[in-house]
Amino acid sequence: MLSQRKYTFALIILFLAVILTGLFNISLGSVNIPVADVTSALLGFEVDKDTWRYIILNYRLPKAITAIITGSGLAVSGLLMQTLFRNPLAGPYVLGLSSGASLGVALVFMGASIFGASFAAILLSKWSLVIASSLGSLLVLFAVILASIRLRDTMAILIIGLMFASLTAAIVSVLAYFSPASQLQQYVFWSYGSLGNLSWNEVIILGLFWIIGILISIGSIKNLNSLLLGEQYARSLGTNIKRNRFMIIIATSLLAGSITAFAGPIAFVGLAVPHLVRQVIPSANHVTLVPAVIFGGAILMLICDIIAQLPGSEFSLPINAITSLIGAPVVIWLLVRKRKFNF
Length: 343
Hints:
By secondary structure, this protein is mainly alpha-helical.
């Protein structure tokens, strides 16, 4: 186990890695900008070209901040779900939030033509997709919350979340079967996920949801630690299991639901980052894990975004594909080398 001094040092290293990775993320793209000029633009100093300043402040900086919010938010959500269900395969979307969001967006993309061309143009706007995705996630969230109030068994909530995911996925499949190819293609492109389509106003709104979710997660650290030893032990320590479960579900829903609404369903990050962090910092204490997971998720998403945008090329790959192609082999290698889950 790491001592407090070593843990603090590890956190400082991770924080510096986030800054360096963010600078490289902003500097690389279809137009490569020197890191020195990126730093100057961010600090308000002069840069060699005015167009570089515009690109940095209006396109690449919002995308980098979105990557940090997305990676850290999904990573914390995954950690919360793995602790709540005591299941190393649980992720931020295990409650069916992503499937609910997908259903809302599918109804917009593949059901817009029902309302006619004029309504279709309104329904297919950016904010309509965000609202539809949010409503879909909220619908599943309310159902899961009702189940959490009535049920004492946490694993039953996990099964209910998986059933809602299957149900919404089935409805999406039916819609896709009867939809024209053009509408189906729009939905498929949304499902790839994207970090670069958000304006500053949208980044600010997403950031507010992120802050609230992270604060609730930090406030739940003590109860998360008690859950590691089982619900019966947590009750003996005076933990209100139902209230604690409710707060964890709310935090996960705020983080994963808002990220899915604005950036689309981003796979793998929430499942993998907690395990990657545990390989580097072998601690079960959430006082250690939560900040480390925040930094680790941000670093992984920034690296994946650098690879996805193919530096020096005008083309970019789907971020969903990169998170799985890059991350999955790394996790497999680490787990095979360790031969066990640190959970």
